[in-house]
Amino acid sequence: MINRPSSKLDSLASTTRASAFFISVVSLDSADLLFVSCVKIASISLCLFFLMISDIGLRSGWFIARVMMYMIILYQKYYYVIIQYFEVRLIVMKIKDIYQNYKLMPNLRLHMYRVAGVALVICDNISETVDRDSITAACLLHDMGNIIKFKLDLFPTFLEPEGRDYWQKVQNEYFEKYGKDEHDATIAIAREIGVNDKVMRLLKSIGFTQAKENYESPQFDRKIVAYSDMRVEPNGVVSLEDRLRDGRKRTRIHKPNSHDESLFEEMSFFLRKIEKQIFEKTSISPDDITDERISKYVSKLSDFELSVHKS
Ligand SMILES: [Fe+2]
Asked: Separation of 160 CA from ligand 1 center, angstroms?
C-alpha cells in the first residue's frame, strides 16, 4: 500500500530542498554550482520519491532522507577532490631536466642559477617573510626564452661544444614556436611547464622596465627577484651600478634604435631605491653578495625541484 505524503512531509521536503541548495551555494565555486545544484536537486527528488513510496513513518523517512543527503554531499565533495587529483596532477620536476628539455644554452643556465643564488642569499638574511621556493623558481625560469634575443656571433665561446649551427637550429625552433619576443616566450614556456600563479606573477615582475612598479609594491618577493637579476652579468655577480652600466651598453648593442635615456635613468633610479628597501631589511650589505657567497647555493640549484601542474 502506498502512503500519500502528508502536508507536513511536503513542507519538510521543501525545507530539505532549500537547505541542500543553500549548502551548494556556500560550499562550491560558482563554476561548479549549476552542475552540482542540479545533481543535488535530482538527489532530493529521489529521496522524496523514496519517502512517498515507502511504508516507513515520517520520523524514519526523514532520518533516511537526511542520511542520504549527507552521503550525496560527501560523495560530491570527494568526487571533486578525486577529479582534481586525476585531471590536474601536481608533479615535481628538477630544474636541470627542464633546462635539458628546452635545450637551454649553458651560459643561460648559469645566469639563472646565479640570479637564484643572489636571491637566496637575500632570502636567508632578510627579516621580511618571503616565499623562498617561489622566488627560487621564478629566478630559475626568468630567462627561459632568451635564446630568441641572442646574437649568436657576439659570444662565440658560449656556443661550444655544440657549435654555431646547432644553436642556430635551436634558435629557429624557438622563433617558430614562441615568436620573436623573448619575454612572451618565457611566459609561454612557464605556462607550458605548468608553474603556479605565484611563480607566474613573479616572472612577470622581472624586467628592467618593471622597476617603478616593483619599488611601489609592498611585496618583497618581487623586489628580490627583480633586483637579483640586476646583480648578475655574463661573467658573474657585480654591483648594481656596474650592472646598470653594462645594461646600458647591452641595450645599445641589442636594440641599436632605442635611445630612451630618460626611461633608462628613471628605471635605474627606482632600482637603486629597491636596493635600499631590500638592504634596510637585511643583516648584510649589497657588497656582501659575491660569487663566492652565492656558490654554495649555485652548486645545489640544478637539483631544485619545481612543483608544476600537469593536465
Ligand atoms: Fe636575467
From this structure: 21
How far is ligand 1, taken at its centre, from the CA of residue 36, in Å? 46
Give the Å distance between the CA of 217 and the centre of ligand 1.
20
CA dihedral 235, 242, 125, 307 (to 10 degrees): -50
User: Which residue matches cell numbers 640586476?
Assistant: 230
Residue type, 20: A
End-to-end CA distance of the chain: 53
Give the span between the Cα atoms of 184 and 257, in whole angstroms: 21
Q: How far is the CA of 11 from the centre of ligand 1 (A)?
A: 67
243 touches 232 (CB < 8 A): yes
* Cβ within 8 Å of residue 46, ≥6 positions away: 68
Is 281:128 a contact under the CB 8 Å cutoff?
Answer: yes
CA distances from 145 to 24, 141, 228, 248 (A): 44, 9, 18, 21
The C-alpha cell of 73 is what? 554531499
266 C-alpha to ligand 1 centroid (Å): 19
Classify burial at 91, counting beta carbons within 10 Å of its beta carbon; exposed 0-12, middle 13-18, buried 19 or more. Answer: exposed
Q: Are 65 and 50 in contact (CB under 8 A)?
A: yes
Give the pLDDT confidence score for residue 2 in this predicted structure.
42
Q: Calculate how far, in angstroms, residue 144's C-alpha sits from the geometric centre of ligand 1.
A: 9
Phi/psi at 239 (5° precision)? -75, 165
Q: 92: helix, coil or strand?
A: strand
Average pLDDT, integer, range 46-58 = 69
Segment 268-289, tens digit of pLDDT: 999 999 999 999 999 999 999 9
Report the C-alpha gap between 276 and 68 in whole angstroms: 62
pTM of the model: 0.70
Residue 232 near residue 111 (C-beta atoms within 8 A): yes
Domains and CATH numbers, the chain: 7-87 (no CATH), 91-310 (1.10.3210)
Cα 290 to middle of ligand 1, angstroms: 17
